[in-house]
Each structure stands twice: as C-alpha cells, then as structure tokens.
Design a protein that fits this description.
homodimer, 240 residues, alpha+beta, Glutamine Phosphoribosylpyrophosphate, subunit 1, domain 1, five-stranded antiparallel β-sheet, 36% helix, 28% strand, globular
Chain lengths: 240, 240
C-alpha cells in the first residue's frame, strides 16, 4: 500500500509520502515516492506516486527523458495544467505499452499521481491524476488530496485542514495523519518524505525526511497520543 | 454501508450499530441493526448485522422462528459458542436459498454478524461471523470487532480500548468512533443504537438510542473536536 497527501493552502502547498512498497507481506521494500522537478525562480513541480512501482517509476523516468528530448515538456510548460496533462500523457503511454502484458497475468496497469506546484506568475495548483489519466484539481472547498490508504488518516485532516490553515499547522497535521495511518496499516511505512512549498517563492526551501526514530516525529506522536487520551478522559460521562 | 462495533472488556460488553441502509445514494432508509435476545437472570445475546438487509433480516427472523420450533435454539443453547453456531447455520441456510437467485443479478449473498453476550455461568464471549458463516472470537489481544465502514473510526478505538478499560470510557470511545465515521462516510448514519452489558448481570440495563440532535452526542462531538484541535495546537512546531 501507499499513503500520500497533497495539501493546497492560501500560503503554500504541502506534499508528503510514505516509502513502503510491497508485493505481499513477504516482499516489502523502501522507495521514495516523491519526485521534485524544480528550477529556482521559475518553477517547482512535485509528484507523489501511488500504485505499481514499475508503472510509476517508468512514468517519472519518461517525464524526465521527455524533459530533455521533447519540445513541450515539464521544464517549459507554462502552466501546472499543462504539467498535469504531460504526466497524464506519459501515464497513458506507459499504460498502452504494459497493459497487454499485465493482462496476461490478470493484472491492470495501476499508477496514479498527486501533482502540484507553481510556475512563474500562475497561482499554485494541485491535481489528483487517476490511473486512467483523467484528473481533478483542488479548489477552495477541497483543500487536500490523499491516495492509497486514505481512511485512517482522514479524520484529522478533515478537522484541521482549511485553506487558511498555516503551513506550520498543516505540516503537523499531515504528520499526525501519517502517524494514525501507520498505526493501523503495516503496509504504510517510514521514512516519510515531506515538502512544504511557500507561495510565490518558486524554490524548495523546506524539505525533510522522517525516518524511524526521528525525534520530532516521535515527540509529535507521543504528545498527540497523550493529549487525545486526556481530551477523551475529560469528555462527559454518558448518563444512561 | 454500515458501522457496527462490539467490544469485550473485563467488566462487560458494548455493542453499537448505525441505522442507515441504502441501495445507492438515491435510496436510503433507517433500520435498526441491533437484535437483543434476552431472558433476565439466564442469558443476554446481542447481534449486530452488516450486509444486505434482506439477508440479515431473514437470518434474524429464522433464528427467532427456530427459537419457537426447534429443539436446539438460542433460548436453550448452553454456550455462546453454540449461539454463534446457530447464527452461522441460519446464515448458511438463507444463503443456500438466496444465492442462485442473487447470482442471476451478479450479486452474492452478503450478511455478516457480530454476536456476543453471556449465558448462565459461562464467561462473556464475543464473536465475529463472516459472510461465509465461519467465525472468530475476541480474546484479550483483540478486545473489539468492527464491521462495515471500519477505518475512519479505528484509530480512537486502538488508542483507548483495552480489556481493562471501564465501561464508561469504552462507551464514550465507541461514540467518538461513530462520530469520526459519520463525518467521513455519508452512508453511515444516525440513530446509533448502543447497549452496554455489565458482566455477570444477565440482564440488559443500559441501552440507548442516539438520534439526530441528541444533546449528549452533540456535546461529546463538540468537546472532542474542540479538545483535539487544542491538543493539536500545542504540538511542537516542526523545525525544518
């Protein structure tokens, strides 16, 4: 499984992904699911990948390769909408190539992405691209997208994430959401890659990897656990 | 969808179920999913049903009918294990009757239950019966079972429910779990039926239905939301 979150706030974007991939519980490994394509002062593009690693890695490689060989590519796209379309095109090309062979084993091509960032003077944008290559964009009503094991970590996002949340609060919230998810689903695992993009900065300044034993993550997890149990204890007792 | 929780503590059992059934978002209704079969001083048996309403209602009707007509039934079973087996038998009988006709519409027989209670001097027991009729029993390592939309409401159960939790705490916790679930999944809805069985009492003393606008449930929901947001604000800020 996988857990990825992309958040769009008034003040910036937050991206986070776990690193666990597996083909059954007897075969799991660590792979970074975050790809950053940036040129300071001009563009910051972040991709979070979910689904079959063979599919998502090939899509990312193809995007990078086309960045060098094709006239229209992620390095000269004028809009994040064009970037989402380029990712979608790459997904469909890889899908066309792999689908017949996967079908022989009863498998489907399965790769999907959260893509966000900012290019030049265009406002920041955030997209969720489905495995079929069609996509939706975050507006003000829905300020975040999740992929993979989305349910355990959604209640805290629902409570805290709103467009006017601060980047500090939203970053903490996303980490708490990962904590809840990893407690309940073994197939989501550390390290967590996290990137916080500040609006109109057009550069990546805040990026961090939280690995097992990370002091900040452990403190967050402990304080959240202790704090919620305390809130819980103070709730009124039910009068039957 | 459905959300049901059965909890087994040292001091008693807790059962809770939502009341929403639907065949698509354009066709939803309210049905109680909790069945109580009790004879004070002798036995308390509680069933929580999930799956197709046609299936679960028929199973419950059959159990009641067999309670009047069959020599071995829920009213004279000497053990909760025997009760789980009677439920399983009824499920399989209904399944055999309905499966060929459901299959014509591409459907599967789909009914499952959480069954718990206490009979005479036997300790309290709690079972989860799968749609196939096989079942598992809660021990000390796993103190609760959920069915239906289980994920949104699981993190709080994981944090609070342990065999030595009090009935008061566990009741509150189950309601908070329902609150989180109903916030995220429209197909789980009020009223919530809740029953708290006190160990060795062999009678049902604590039972309540929480309907929309219930003052206690609203207070719980508000205080939990406010409290967790406050805990959240006090979490340490991430130093990038």
């Amino acid at each position: 499984m996988t857990y990825c979150v992309g958040v769009k706030l008034e003040s910036g974007l937050i991206f986070a992904s776990d690193s666990r991939t597996h083909a059954g519980v007897d075969d799991y490994a660590k792979f970074c699911k975050m790809t950053v394509l940036d040129k300071a002062g001009e563009r910051v593009i972040v991709l979070l990948s979910s689904g079959s690693l063979a599919g998502t890695q090939t899509v990312v490689s193809l995007l990078r390769r086309r960045g060098e060989t094709e006239p229209k590519n992620v390095w000269n796209a004028e809009s994040m909408f064009d970037v989402a379309t380029l990712v979608s095109d790459a997904m469909r090309d890889v899908g066309r190539r792999d689908t017949p062979f996967l079908a022989e084993s009863g498998l489907k091509f399965n790769a999907s992405f959260i893509v966000g960032g900012q290019i030049g003077k265009e406002p920041m944008r955030l997209f969720r691209i489905y495995a079929e290559g069609n996509f939706i964009e975050a507006g003000t009503d829905t300020a975040f997208f999740q992929t993979g094991e989305t349910k355990y970590g959604k209640p805290i996002l629902d409570r805290v994430i709103a467009p006017d949340a601060t980047l500090d609060d939203a970053s903490k919230c996303v980490l708490v959401s990962f904590d809840s998810t990893m407690r309940s689903n073994l197939s989501v695992g550390m390290p967590i890659d996290m990137l916080c993009y500040e609006r109109d900065s057009l550069k990546v300044r805040l990026r961090k990897r939280f690995d097992k034993g990370d002091a900040y993550f452990n403190a967050l997890s402990d304080q959240w656990g202790t704090g919620t149990r305390q809130v819980f204890r103070q709730l009124p007792v039910l009068e039957w």
